[in-house]
Design a protein that fits this description.
By secondary structure, this protein is α/β, with parallel strands linked by helices. It is built from 13 helices and 9 strands.
């Protein structure tokens, strides 16, 4: 019997590095992954939303997973973002990611035909993926990007599938997260989808988080988890509050361009975004620098 996968800890949905000509830079990808593995991070999500997955060709995705599979060590989890609009394309990509060494797959909700994505459609979609997947599946709910908000009832029903092991919840709805934790099958694991509410999520039973901020502040976020586990709630709260502005800067305020610029500033590789996304202008860069300094991220 396969040993259950623990999702406890912090994971970055890693950005995809591009060179000056817009091609995936596999050397920089490998270097970034090696650096992240020297931090307290539990693993990496490769081709989540921050990986600009929707802007990549299938061939590029496969090559990225190949590089990740070669670099991510046995002590770190490799989670592949395989979600597509079509159920069977997601099944196919999940099978391929597994061949490159992915330990689990994270699948975002299909959303183009959002009016048709009701409870029955979503349960059917994820059940089909899980039935055919060689690796465990993590649900990914990000209504700010998709316009689809997985309901607690849908998540709880899917949580009883033996291959569906967890949820990345990016809505920030901690009440819904608590309901999922309390009513899901034993062993189902909930992850905060943003560094802005990691501590509140932990307080209701989440086991960690998949957070853009983890790419640039891994020690601080892992510190929140460690403080929570040992009962030092005051220090955990202080760290959580200190990171609020920085988390916003690398997510909704400046987006992926902000996250990549932050990586450049801490000595890792961020590089350009892929059009139609745009890089930061000078004023935005100045603002980002100020926010990172105030959060203590540039001092690390």
């Amino acid at each position: 019997m396969t040993k259950p996968i623990s999702l406890a800890g912090c994971f970055p949905p890693i950005p995809t590095p591009f060179d000056a000509r817009g091609r995936v830079d596999h050397d920089e990808l490998a270097l970034n992954l090696k650096k992240w593995q020297k931090t307290p991070l539990r693993g990496s999500v490769v081709l989540g939303s921050n990986g600009e997955a929707v802007l990549l060709k299938t061939e590029e995705k496969l090559e990225i997973w190949k590089t990740a599979g070669q670099v991510i060590g046995p002590d770190h989890l490799f989670i592949a973002g395989t979600g597509c609009e079509a159920t069977w394309e997601t099944v196919e990509l999940t099978e391929k990611a597994a061949r490159f060494g992915a330990h689990a797959a994270m699948a975002v909700t299909p959303h183009y035909y959002k009016a048709r994505m009701d409870h029955r459609a979503l349960v059917s979609h994820y059940t089909t993926i899980a039935d055919h997947s060689p690796i465990p599946i993590i649900l990914y709910n990000v209504p700010a990007s998709t316009g689809i908000d997985l309901s607690a009832e849908t998540i709880i029903e899917l949580a009883h599938h033996p291959k569906i092991i967890g949820l990345k919840e990016s809505s920030g709805n901690v009440v819904k997260m608590a309901e999922v934790v309390s009513r899901s099958a034993d062993g189902f694991q909930v992850l905060a989808g943003s560094g802005s509410f990691l501590l509140p999520a932990l307080s209701i039973g989440a086991v960690g988080g998949v957070m853009a901020l983890a790419a640039v502040a891994p020690h601080a976020l892992a510190g929140i988890v460690a403080d929570f586990q040992k009962g030092d709630m005051r220090h955990a709260r202080d760290t959580q509050l200190r990171l609020i502005a920085a988390n916003a800067a690398v997510t909704n305020r400046f987006g992926i361009a902000g996250l990549k610029a932050a990586l450049d500033r801490i000595g890792m590789y961020g590089g350009p975004v892929r059009p139609p996304l745009r890089t930061l202008d000078k004023d935005q860069e100045t603002t980002l620098d100020k926010i990172l300094r105030e959060a203590g991220i540039l001092e690390q």
